[in-house]
Amino acid sequence: MTQFLGIGIGAGLVSALLFGVLLKATALAILLYLLAPLPILIVGLGWSHRAALVAAVTGALALALVVQPFLGLGFFAYLALPAWWLAYLALLGRPGADGTMEWYPTGRLLAWTAGTAGLAFVAIAVIAAPNYETFQSQLRGMTRTLIQVRADRTANPAAPVPGPAAPAPKPDAPEAGAEAPAESGPQDPAEATRTEVANALAAIAPGLATHGLTVLLTFYLWAAARIVRISGRLLRPWPDLAATMMPRRVLGVLVGAVVLALVPGYPGTLGVAVAGALSAAFAIQGLAAFHDRSRGRPGRLALLLGLYLILFFTQGVALLALTLFGMADTALDRRRHRDAAGRP
């Protein structure tokens, strides 16, 4: 017990330090922040899920006491608790009929990774803005800023990046009896279009955020397992990742999330977040299915290299096709039937 407490406390402090450097707002700080869940996952997969839970609680308490309570709570809800939960699921197992250990399937683990990302996003949103209207106002403000920056760069791409400027002088106060400035006329059509685009982007922003978070959590889990495996402490055999396939019921969850997205308030945000997260999970499954189906084929390396090049250069267009491929893989269930009959 003393061992997992010690390793958990150490990992939690390291994770909190990596998370806390984000306040520096530098490129290196952002890179270190992205590594924050790894220590928790490493101790969870190499020692036990109890060590991961100790690490999550320790990191949250350290940030809450040293920096501010809100930062500790955000760290716990958004990164630490999801890391512990995924480490716990990865090490679930039960004895099979033949006496061998049956470990938690990677397909279900992938589905839970997506669900965890959706719940984590909504949790941090509620913590940051308990009032839903405030949350929506913040989202619209961020998306309007992004649209405006993009529009300015498109209009004047050669303009230098503005540096810190001296504060502009305050306008003189109007004299008594002076007329107030005339109100502006009708809104510029371009500005109205940008506002509509920003509002539409704000509506799907939770899905975009959880799409990226699902990919990151999947990568964290893989990277932590590889590190622990190299050290010889991985408590479960390395799975066949190319055979990863989520259960069919996940398609029903996706449909339910799309329907829930029509509900106003945070329930609708949860629906958008889960739908975005599951789309990332199906894209990852589509990638796994491509790896699986290309096994034993001539020119497999060239096929895989071509796929990754297409994904890189199309900037996400091919990702939609990969997502649909993953959904079809789950719906048709052909790989599981093929494995039951024996691989060719």
Question: SSE layout and pairings?
Answer:
Layout (H helix, E strand, L loop, with lengths): L1 H19 L6 H8 L3 H9 L2 H18 L2 H22 L2 E3 L5 E3 L2 H23 L3 H24 L33 H43 L17 H12 L5 H28 L6 H14 L3 H16 L1 H8 L3
Antiparallel strand pairs: 1-2
Helix pairs in contact: 1-3, 1-4, 1-5, 3-4, 3-5, 3-8, 4-5, 5-6, 6-8, 6-10, 7-8, 8-10, 9-10, 10-12
Question: Would you write up a description of this structure?
Answer:
It contains 13 helices and 2 strands; from the N terminus they run H-H-H-H-H-E-E-H-H-H-H-H-H-H-H. The C terminus is likely disordered. With 344 residues, it is mainly α. A two-stranded antiparallel ribbon has the order 1-2. The relative contact order is 0.10. A hairpin with a 5-residue loop joins strand 1 and strand 2. Helix 1 packs antiparallel against helix 3.
- Please describe the biggest sheet, giving its number of strands, its sense, and whether it closes into a barrel: 2 strands, antiparallel
**What is the alpha-carbon Rg in Å?**
24 Å
Distance between the termini: 48 Å
Order of helices and strands: HHHHHEEHHHHHHHH
Average the pLDDT over all residues and give the rounded result. 84
Helix content bin: over 70%
Q: What would you call the structural class?
A: mainly alpha
| Share of β-strand residues | under 5%
How many strand units?
2
Q: What kind of oligomer do you see?
A: single chain
Strands of the widest sheet, in order across it, are: 1-2
